[in-house]
Amino acid sequence: MNSRLGLFDSGVGGLTVLQRVVQRHGDFPCLYLGDTARVPYGSRSESEIRFIAREISEWLLDQSISAILIACNTTNSLALDIIQTSIELPVYDLISGAAEMIEGTRIGVLATEATVNSHSYKKRIETAKPGTFVLEQSCPAFVPMIETGQLTYSVLNQIASKYLAPLIDAGVDEIVLGCSHYPLIQDLLIELLPENVRLVDPSVGLAMNLDDFLGEPSSQKSLTQISNTRFCVTSDPIGFSAQLSNWLGINPEVELISLPSKACVF
Ligand code: DGL
Q1: Catalytic residue selected from 30, 139, 179, 232
Q2: Residue 187, exposed/middle/buried by CB under 10 A (0-12, 13-18, 19+)?
Q3: Cα–Cα dist 80/85, whole Å
């Protein structure tokens, strides 16, 4: 099997998922689509997110991928069914893997507004582990700050402290990073959290679930060592390249692609 795994997100966030996949499965051929023309997804309506999910799934299918990895929690929360029915290929998602990774009893979830409003994490965790306390917190400022790369440590610190306060007050023992952008700022989150609070990155579970498809982990790599991934965006390839270099220290070629809707929503 040589065809590519297809991953997508609104921007750079899904690269944290690619990173986990590469760390476990090596330089497997992948196709990464960052829908930079429509980032952020988290403040969009359910119908917009479902439209986007269908369009991107169909585009990925046209690229002859072998499986789809939903590297975006927002589309995972609101359009998993669309993705599963748009393509007759294996679909690997973040949320189902995360529920299996929960070890604590008082769980915080940091996510986009759309993900929090869907309560997808809360429902999934409570179903998998009945009796677990789950408190969700939306973080609308994080993705725009990460995508522009204009992060002032003190401002980010202030905003993150505000988002974390209700979870700390509630005495959570684990926090799920329910948006694939957030692992990029996890060092700051760790600094602000009590030592006993563990962070859960759902992409670890996704990469493990991929063993079913790719086999046992073999040749682990870091993102800086890969050469088999095709990177595509729906706008501003130069800006995206700068972000890849800034956040992940990689400088691959980035292609501008065109979707049927020209990356508009209806
Ligand atoms: N990184 C995505 C997620 O996991 C999308 C964030 C956004 O565009 O708002 O939810």
Answers
A1: 179
A2: exposed
A3: 9
Fold equal for 5-94+206-256 and 96-201? yes
Fold classification of 5-94+206-256 (topology level): Rossmann fold (3.40.50)
CA 71, CA 33: separation in Å to the nearest integer?
A: 10
Active site residue 179: yes
> For a substitution probing ligand 1, which of 74, 110, 136 has the most ligand atoms within 8 Å of its CB?
74
Integer angstrom CA distances of residue 91 from 8, 47, 179, 207, 233? 12, 21, 18, 12, 21
CATH node for 96-201:
3.40.50.1860
Q: What is the pLDDT along the chain (266 residues), one digit of tens a residue?
A: 558 999 999 999 999 999 999 999 999 999 999 999 999 999 999 999 999 999 999 999 999 999 999 999 999 999 999 999 988 999 999 999 898 899 999 999 999 999 999 999 999 999 999 999 999 999 999 999 999 887 888 999 999 999 999 999 999 999 999 999 999 999 999 999 999 999 999 999 999 999 999 998 877 889 999 899 999 999 999 999 999 999 989 999 999 999 999 878 86
Q: Parallel, antiparallel, or unpaired: how do β-strands 133-138 and 67-70 relate?
A: unpaired
Q: In angstroms, what is the span from residue 144 Cα to ligand 1's centroid?
A: 10
pTM higher than 0.70, yes or no? yes
Written as six digits, the tokens of 43 are 């403040």
Residue 34's CB is within 10 A of a number of other CB atoms, namely 30
DSSP element (H, E) containing 91? strand 91-92
Domain ranges in the chain? Answer: 5-94+206-256, 96-201
